[in-house]
């Protein structure tokens, strides 16, 4: 029997042949889910995650093809490879779901998030916040004598870093869009 | 060609166009237009139930015994919420259903109107898919899609929620063939390279076993035929889950009996000791696997399933094949024959010798009595007296269900209807009515426990009204038998609320609904009583008073592996802490 040497969890023609199915290591994965933009489709996806006990770290959803009534849901989730595979398969059997792509495994994705930061400060702190914003290529989109609203785009890590720096300078509020992602290349 | 008609007329027209002959339902304010349309035609028969849960179970019984989708119609609010248990049952057991629910008019949705409930919200996790139709012009298309989704891929229940104004309004009716169903097309052909690998495994395995499930039944009669051919040609042993009984005949020479928590010793030990496990349309349910870490430790596992999410969900497998069982088996047989029909004959002979040793344990043996009817004996007699008839069996849930699976033999698929995944007490009686509606001349028997049976006993009226001669074979131990058994084995014999107090006089109850009632308590009278039940032309309530403290063996205690089965003889010595699952 062993002569066939089939790897655990291997499917033929699959990049998964290369990984260990039994790995207990959890990692973050960005999934792109293309769906029909119909009533309740987001509830189906979210209900699947809560009903089966999966995590959602970030979720974005918007119509991407108005004519074709298609929306793109981008989910950042966390789990072992076996759990991620199970999430993919479970998403795939929802009727209005057309395609599920594990961007993290299948394609080095470009990931971007937009965030707005309100920083209230005067004097040296106000100047410092503006200086750091410049380094991070954040734009000032609202300004009063006591506050700024910065707009910043980047990877979630970059936005986290910016938030850390703004906190001691008078950070009042943050709004983040969640991750949008596409595979690199053609 | 598009025709103008009301939404209510469209429902009836679409049912006709999909070949539906019968719909189970209960009227109410929000479905009155559809009931009006049903009144004005004679092609579709409506079965008036007494509770919406029963309507869904009847539709399930109809579907499972015919292979066609079952249909039900319920009103808004409580009508829909009552249907939830049935929908969940059908989802767990992959039964194709198309259910229509009424809804308050579109302009009232969200206002907490009378008999309003968020039906699509409530039923979203317990249907394969559901729709709220707000535009009569889209209704026909939606119904056609609903039939497609319910019956394609892994089958399941779907629900269409219909606001009352949509039922009244006029719209365009489009024919089924024009419906857009292109994007939901589950893959039915297995990857041919993987199927070839399966054949290679078949050729070399020394200790193989087929582990088959409800997917073989759902795949259709062709799947059962192909499976029988492959099993008989290879000479491999075969076992099945509760859901898959009948796909391979119980009288077949390679049959090991059911596996799992109350499965046969030889079947479970074959699973534990095999070197090749071929899973056809089963899903490694926790009642099958026992302790995951020790599940069949030395085998190469192949899993054929039409639902990719079933694969690697619980047990990691070596060779997954996503596809329909019939398609995969057809290819596997073709390839295996073309390569010269090879098997490891020497290995197989040794393997069968080992299996014969396990069979000698006679794991279903029980101590019979001439004073009191043992439930196993009642089922042995029922089997002996009915097996040659055109027979369909449904069950409730509990000990009687497991004994029925152990002691009744099924020679063909679609003859055995039981609530496997959800374990719904109250399933069997309405399901038996649904089966009888589909097969008016057949002998339809619901093997029941008295506690389960009481859960949907209101359907006696339905059986009387629609002249369904269903036989309710109640193994009455005045206990919630399986609960009592777990309390006995796992909770120190503290029988907390597991007895059936204040039971009715079943004979008088039967008579009050125009049924025949039979009560039997002496083993000597059992055969005559069963014959009287069979020969009576009408519904029978058969109250079989059995031993009250019988436990169902063999049993894999919860959390134990297959090779630590508990046999009747060992039970006295068994002690264990409370079980988790």
Description:
Chain A: Its EC number is 2.2.1.6. The complex is a heterodimer of chains A (186) and B (581). By secondary structure, chain A is α+β, with helices and mostly antiparallel strands. Chain A has two domains: 24-106, Alpha-Beta Plaits; 110-183, ACT-like. Chain A, domain 2 (Alpha-Beta Plaits), CATH 3.30.70.1150. In chain A, 27% of the residues lie in helices and 37% in strands. Chain A has helices spanning 41-51, 81-92, 103-106, 123-135, 156-166; strands at residues 27-36, 58-65, 70-79, 97-102, 109-120, 139-143, 147-154, 171-176, 180-183. In chain A, strands 5, 6, 7, 8 and 9 form a five-stranded antiparallel beta sheet that branches. Chain A starts with 26 loop residues before the first strand and ends with a strand. The model of chain A is unreliable at 1-19 (pLDDT under 50). Chain B has 581 residues and is α/β, with parallel strands linked by helices. Chain B has three domains: 3-178, 3-Layer(aba) Sandwich (Rossmann fold); 192-359, TPP-binding domain (Rossmann fold, 3-Layer(aba) Sandwich); 375-552, Thiamin diphosphate (ThDP)-binding fold, Pyr/PP domains (Rossmann fold, 3-Layer(aba) Sandwich), CATH 3.40.50.970. In chain B, 37% of the residues lie in helices and 17% in strands. In chain B, the strands form four sheets. In chain B, strands 3-2-4-5-7-6 form a six-stranded parallel beta sheet, sandwiched between helices. In chain B, helix 1 (7-17) packs across helix 2, helix 1 runs parallel beside helix 7 and helix 3 packs across helix 18. The chains are: A alpha+beta (186), B alpha/beta (581). At the A-B interface, helix 1 and helix 2 of A face strand 6 and helix 9 of B.
- The number of domains of chain B is 3
Structural class estimated from helices and strands of chain A: alpha+beta
CATH fold-level name of the largest domain in chain B: Rossmann fold
CA radius of gyration of chain B is: 24 Å
InterPro entries (chain A): Acetalactate_synth_ssu (IPR004789), Acetolactate_synth/TF_NikR_C (IPR027271), Acetolactate_synth_ssu_C (IPR019455), ACT-like_dom_sf (IPR045865), ACT_dom (IPR002912), AHAS_ACT (IPR039557), AHAS_small-like_ACT (IPR054480)
Protein name (chain A): Acetolactate synthase small subunit
Family (chain A): Belongs to the acetolactate synthase small subunit family.
Catalytic activity (chain A): 2 pyruvate + H(+) = (2S)-2-acetolactate + CO2
């Amino acid at each position: 029997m062993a002569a066939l040497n089939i790897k655990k969890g291997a499917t033929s023609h699959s990049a998964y042949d290369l990984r260990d199915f039994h790995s207990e290591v959890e990692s973050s994965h960005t999934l792109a889910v293309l769906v029909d933009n119909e009533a309740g489709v987001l509830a189906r996806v979210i209900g699947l995650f809560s009903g089966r006990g999966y995590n959602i770290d970030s979720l974005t959803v918007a119509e991407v093809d108005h004519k074709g009534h298609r929306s793109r849901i981008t989910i950042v989730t966390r789990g072992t490879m076996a759990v991620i595979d199970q999430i993919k398969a479970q998403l795939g059997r929802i009727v209005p779901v057309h395609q599920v792509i594990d961007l993290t495994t299948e394609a080095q994705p470009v990931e971007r998030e937009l965030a707005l930061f309100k920083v209230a400060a005067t004097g040296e702190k106000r100047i410092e916040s503006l200086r750091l914003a410049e380094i991070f290529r954040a734009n000032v989109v609202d300004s009063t004598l006591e506050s700024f609203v910065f707009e910043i785009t980047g990877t979630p890590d970059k936005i986290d870093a910016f938030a850390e720096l703004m906190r001691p300078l008078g950070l009042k509020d943050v709004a983040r869009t969640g991750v949008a992602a596409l595979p690199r290349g053609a | 060609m598009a025709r103008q008609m009301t939404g209510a007329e469209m429902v009836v027209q679409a049912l006709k166009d999909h070949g539906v002959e019968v719909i189970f339902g209960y009227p109410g304010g929000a479905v009155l237009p559809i009931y009006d349309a049903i009144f004005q035609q004679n092609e579709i028969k409506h079965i008036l139930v007494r509770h919406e849960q029963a309507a869904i179970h009847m539709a399930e019984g109809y579907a499972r015994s015919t292979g066609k989708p079952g249909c039900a119609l319920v009103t808004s609010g409580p009508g829909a919420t009552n249907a939830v248990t049935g929908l969940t049952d059908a989802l767990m057991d992959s039964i194709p259903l198309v259910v229509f629910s009424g809804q308050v008019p579109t302009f009232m949705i969200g206002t907490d109107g009378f008999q309003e409930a968020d039906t699509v919200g409530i039923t979203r996790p317990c249907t394969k898919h559901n729709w709220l139709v707000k535009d009569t012009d889209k209704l026909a298309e939606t119904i056609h899609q609903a039939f497609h989704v319910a019956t394609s891929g892994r089958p399941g229940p779907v629900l269409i929620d219909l606001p009352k104004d949509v039922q009244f309004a006029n719209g365009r009716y489009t024919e089924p063939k024009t419906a857009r169903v292109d994007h939901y097309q589950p893959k039915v052909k297995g990857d041919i390279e993987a199927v070839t690998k399966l054949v290679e495994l078949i050729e070399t395995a020394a200790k193989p076993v087929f582990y088959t499930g409800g997917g073989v039944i759902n795949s259709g009669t062709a799947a059962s035929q192909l499976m029988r051919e492959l099993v008989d040609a290879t000479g491999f042993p075969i076992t099945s889950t509760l859901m898959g009984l009948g796909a391979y005949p119980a009288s077949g020479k390679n049959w090991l009996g059911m596996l799992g928590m109350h499965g046969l010793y030889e079947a479970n030990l074959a699973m534990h000791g095999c070197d090749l496990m071929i899973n056809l349309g089963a899903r490694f349910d926790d009642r099958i696997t026992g302790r995951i870490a020790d599940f069949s430790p030395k085998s190469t596992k192949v899993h054929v399933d039409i639902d990719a999410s079933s694969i690697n969900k619980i047990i990691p497998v070596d060779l997954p094949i996503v596809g329909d069982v019939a398609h995969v088996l057809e290819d596997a047989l073709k390839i295996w024959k073309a390569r010269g029909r090879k098997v490891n004959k020497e290995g197989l002979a040794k393997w069968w010798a080992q299996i014969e040793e396990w069979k000698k344990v006679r794991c279903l043996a029980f101590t019979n009595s001439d004073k009191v009817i043992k439930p196993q004996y009642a089922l042995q007699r029922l089997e002996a007296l009915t097996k040659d008839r055109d027979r369909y069996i449904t069950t409730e849930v509990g000990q009687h269900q497991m004994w029925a699976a152990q002691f009744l033999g099924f020679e063909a698929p679609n003859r055995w209807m039981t609530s496997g995944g959800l374990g719904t007490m109250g399933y069997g009686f309405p399901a038996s009515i649904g089966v009888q509606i589909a097969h008016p001349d057949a002998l339809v028997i619901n093997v029941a426990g008295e506690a389960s049976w009481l859960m949907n006993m209101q359907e006696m009226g339905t059986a009387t009204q629609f002249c369904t001669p269903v036989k309710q074979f109640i193994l009455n131990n005045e206990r919630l038998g399986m609960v009592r058994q777990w309390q006995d084995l796992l909770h120190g014999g503290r029988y907390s609320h597991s007895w059936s107090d204040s039971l009715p006089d079943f004979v008088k109850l039967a008579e009050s609904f125009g049924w025949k009632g039979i009560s039997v308590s002496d083993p000597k009278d059992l055969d005559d009583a069963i014959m009287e039940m069979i020969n009576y032309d009408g519904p029978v309530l058969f109250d079989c008073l059995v031993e009250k403290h019988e436990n169902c063996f063999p049993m894999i205690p919860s959390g134990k592996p297959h090779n630590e089965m508990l046999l009747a003889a060992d039970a006295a010595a068994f002690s264990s802490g409370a079980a988790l699952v």
